[in-house]
Amino acid sequence: MTTSANLKPARSRKPVDWKEAAFTVFNYTFLSLLVIVTIYPFYYIFIYSISDSIEAQKGVYLWPAGFSLEAYKTTVQLPGIADAAIVTLGRTILGTVITVFSCSFFAYLITKNELPLRKFIYRFVLITMYFNAGFIPWYLTMKMYGLQNNFLLYILPTAISGFNIILIKTFIEQLPPSLEESAKIDGAGYFRVFTSIIFPLSMPIIATIAIFSAVGQWNTWFDNFFLVENPKLQTLQLVLYNFLNQSSNLSNMTTEQLTRGDLVRTLTPQSIRMTITMLVTLPIVLVYPLLQRYFVKGIMIGAVKG
Fold first, then answer.
1. How far apart are CA 290 and CA 214, in angstroms?
2. Taking 60 as the threshold, does the pLDDT of residue 110 lie above it?
3. Which residue in 19, 87, 146, 214 is a FRET match for 170, CA 20 to 30 A apart?
């Protein structure tokens, strides 16, 4: 016989919430489809660029149609592409460094109450975010400063940004004042305090600004298009843009005409466009993961004052 001591209470099962389960399934399904819709265009461009040009014309969906790097070989061998890549790389690195240092030091200075006309300077910076003189004044100003056909055109006009200054200023104001006070007691000046304490502690927002600046410097071709005529100073974006226009003209030719050219014997205009798109966007895509851990933290702390 079984006694009451040997009897175990039956486990009570929690009733299934079908509404919550249905929402979870719908949520995961919707977000998965959204990710696919977002990533697939870039993936399509990539597999098209490494596909055989002739086979790719028949259709590319999930896998490359054949395999060929001829489009990349042809693109990187364009006249002036090496010089343009060096100019763009130098512009991106130097421009980012100058922008980050100038904006961060400027933001640090306007947090000091002893700075003369501090509020006026800060408000003057804010005004630049809302009012723009336009293209013609900008063009005349750049020429008057002697920045036409000058490499400094790429790095000096972007040294100060009102948006970046606001983010960095807000971040610096949340740092403990005791750190700066202890350094001043030891005899450190403003520049030493900034380089030894403020700048290292502001690395999350600094990394965020660096991403903004690097992406902007890499993608910009507007100033190059209007103010630079020297082929040695042309950026990669403009060189590829001009070649992209040339490849678009090729699409109007007949197949018989295409087979006569040395450039497009094994390539098609569509393949060239895909390759150029990859070359332009891939470096920035590779930079983002390196600074991703700083990005979210920096933008949230710098944008919301605690």
1. 13
2. yes
3. 214
Cα–Cα distance between 241 and 209 in angstroms, integer?
27
Indicate the pTM of the whole model. 0.74
Measure Cα distances from 199 to 23, 205, 234, 280 in Å.
46, 10, 33, 31
Please give the structure tokens belonging to residue 163: 């948006």
Q: Give 72: exposed, middle or buried? Use CB within 10 Å, 0-12, 13-18, 19+.
A: middle
Residues whose CB falls within 8 Å of the CB of residue 83, separated by 6 or more in sequence, listed in order? 231, 232, 234
Is the distance from CB of 153 to CB of 91 less than 8 angstroms? no
Q: Does 250 have pLDDT greater than 50?
A: no
Please give the Cα distance from 146 to 150 (Å, whole number). Answer: 7
Amino acid letter, 46: F
3-state secondary structure the chain: CCCCCCCCCCCCCCCCCHHHHHHHHHHHHHHHHHHHHHHHHHHHHHHHHCCCHHHHCCCCCCCCCCCCCHHHHHHHCCCCHHHHHHHHHHHHHHHHHHHHHHHHHHHHHCCCCCCCCHHHHHHHHHHCCCCCCCHHHHHHHHHHCCCCCCHHHHCCCCCCCHHHHHHHHHHHHCCCHHHHHHHHHCCCCHHHHHHHHHHHHCHHHHHHHHHHHHHHHHHCCHHHHHHCCCHHHCCHHHHHHHHHHHHHHHCCCCHHHHCCCCCCCCCCHHHHHHHHHHHHHHHHHHHHHHHHHHHHHHHHHHHCCC
Specify the amino acid at residue 230: N
- Single out the residue of 168, 164, 165, 171 nearest to residue 213, CA to CA: 164
12 confidence band (pLDDT: 50, 70, 90): low
Task: Take residue 225 and report the two structure tokens written for it.
Answer: 């298009």
Residue 252 sits at φ, ψ, to 5 deg, of -85, -10
